[in-house]
Fold this sequence. Notes:
Blueprint lengths: L11 E4 L37 H11 L7 E6 L6 E3 L73 E12 L4 E3 L2 E2 L3 E6 L6 H7 L9 E9 L2 E9 L10 E3 L2 E5 L4 E2 L12 E6 L3 E9 L2 E8 L10 E7 L6 E4 L4 E10 L19 E2 L2 E2 L5 E3 L5 E7 L25 E4 L5 E7 L3 E7 L6 E6 L9 E4 L5 E7 L3 E7 L6 E6 L9 E4 L5 E7 L3 E7 L6 E6 L9 E4 L5 E7 L3 E7 L6 E6 L9 E4 L5 E6 L5 E6 L6 E6 L9 E4 L5 E7 L3 E7 L6 E5 L10 E4 L5 E6 L4 E7 L6 E6 L1
Amino acid sequence: MIKNRYRSVSFLTLAALAAGCSAGAAGTSAPEEPTSPRASTVTSSTEFAPRDPAKEQWRHQMSKAPPTKEGCYDAVHPSMEWVEVPCATGRHTPPPHPQVTTRAGSPAERSYPGAVLGPVAPELGRANAEPSSKAPEGALAGAGTIRPETSGTVSSGTISWAEGSFPTVKGLTSETYNGTSNDFSLQLNTQSNFTNSAVAALCKSTATPSSCTGWVQFVYWQGAAEIWYNLINTGSTCPSGWSNQSGGCYREAPNTAAISTQAITNLPNMTLTGVAGGTTDTVIVTTGPGQLHAAVNTSLLNLSPEWTYADFNVLGNGSYGSATFNTGTTLGVQLLTDSATGNTSAPTCGPYNSTTGEGNDLSFVTGSCCTFGGDVPGILFTESNASSPTAIACPAGLSNISSLENLPPSIFVRSTGEADIVEQGPSNSLVYRFAWPGTAWSSTTIAGAGTTFSAPSIYVRSSGEADIVYQGPNNSLVYAFATPGSAWTVATIAGAGTTFSAPSIYVRSTGEADIVAEGPGNSLIYYFAWPGTAWSSTQIAGARSTFSRPSIFVRSTGEADVVAEGSGNSLMYYFAWPGTAWSHTEIAGAGSTFSAPSVFVRSTGEADVVAQGADASLQYYFATPGSSWTNTQIAPDGSTLSAPSIFVRSTGEADVVAEGPNASIMYYYAWPGTAWSSNPIGSNESAFAPPAVFVRSSGEADVVSLSTSTTMNYFWATPGSAWSSTAISL
Length: 730
């Protein structure tokens, strides 16, 4: 069990519903250059690549929809399914936890200024203590710890989800604990003073029920991800099934996820998430891009309605130990939360002690606290043991981190010149925008909160009717349509448990709408209907065949072409004519494809496909019917950080857009037989989701991408002209 004890370690803490936002402390040193909230760049001999935004979006979506059945689970990008796996058999034994004795002046025993929600969190077996009124001589204000603003009464709700991560890592090469390398814990802790009927019922079986309170810890440590349930100030007696140590009671949740021992240099790829789901609590650990491990347990303390505070950091591996990092290490530590009641207020920086007993040798960098509100309010701060460290500046877009929850928009331009855009909006709503050249953007909400759980796809018929498809609640498939000036009609195509990716839509000239999406068990499902008829469906490919959002294009001959990422990061192509069975071929083998692909078929019959390749490269494939696929690399390793989008002009020029380094948007173009040319669109920090492209008959290319959670960037250019842009407020 990770023990509860005041430390002088810098620690990230957050209350769910604190109002207001404060600037950094006075005397802030000059900040470094902004770093993307997704970037993990190290300036020492160890380098870490930026996180793939597509995998980040997938991870957030998966962690917001954890398994509900008790047990242990793994998930691998891009599958939207949790796969049940055996739980760890050898669980952690709690380390020795001696009774605390006060040692005046010891850093481990100092209490720093700062209030908490309720009494100051005690140690196991230690009476509540008021914090000292003054920080020890020479200590940073509050020892660099951060707390939420707690003046007044918190009354707006509780935390339902919290996630800790290290979006910026510099100079990290090693860590030791008691002389052992790579021996550390990640801890996400609740407040340690909550009570409710479940806690009170358990406390009745302790020696001091009147002072007994609850505390929950979500923990990664060597070989395991697990949950610890604690009762504080119990005396020597514990409820049946609980263990006593130093005057407190603890119980390890029975389901522990088995995780291979992680090297400290993998810290930029790791996240720790805690979910209070009502009857169950879930711990989720990310060990690499697109790799999740979860353990689900019955909520012994009924945490969900009580969770109002969270703290997070990388620490020693139990027993009050401290993690020791190589000199020159600097970490950006981030904690995000989501409220069961939809709170969007930013927390406030301030001094406070964590609820745990473990620590590290990194110090808070004065003035480094960044706070942000939005769908997932949070805090980011800098801790370091480097000489004269500087605060990592709050990156562009960090003021509202909810951009991480957004998925790529979809665009279609009508023959009238009107551009139509749809995107997943705030609180999982569906938003539609439209504008003609030179006019302001208008918007409407097609479907309200809790309706939309994927990137939508749009196609506009020649009649003017806009057709939109998206993943709905409980993995359903939903269809919305409207003609200009009329209300939107929304209908369910397929019910719960049918859809596990963003869908793709294409409407034939006959009026038939064709839709593809990933189905249960990583299958590939095709849906079709004519106006006024019921939807029909068929399975294109079976289980374990499809691992991305598919893309569809229908030829004038009636043949439907579908591409998707296949098993083992392969690239698969499927085709069929109406009334015939689906055929398939492998475009590229295992290890070739690391994003959802995009397909466009030329009037000549040549199919063009683009996808993110190995090592963040950009790959292009083409073939005519009956010929083999040809592959060429559009952009080299490290160039492409999202799924790309392709559109082929009637002139034969292929236009491709994708997110590049530093959240830039890269535009590529080529004619058959020529080399690919490229140029950036906009500036860095322009894209926090994959961009989409559509080319008008006039030759103007329109590109759209989310830049933050509050802004969408729309770019346009004709051949030979510079790119123009406008920001669309979300």
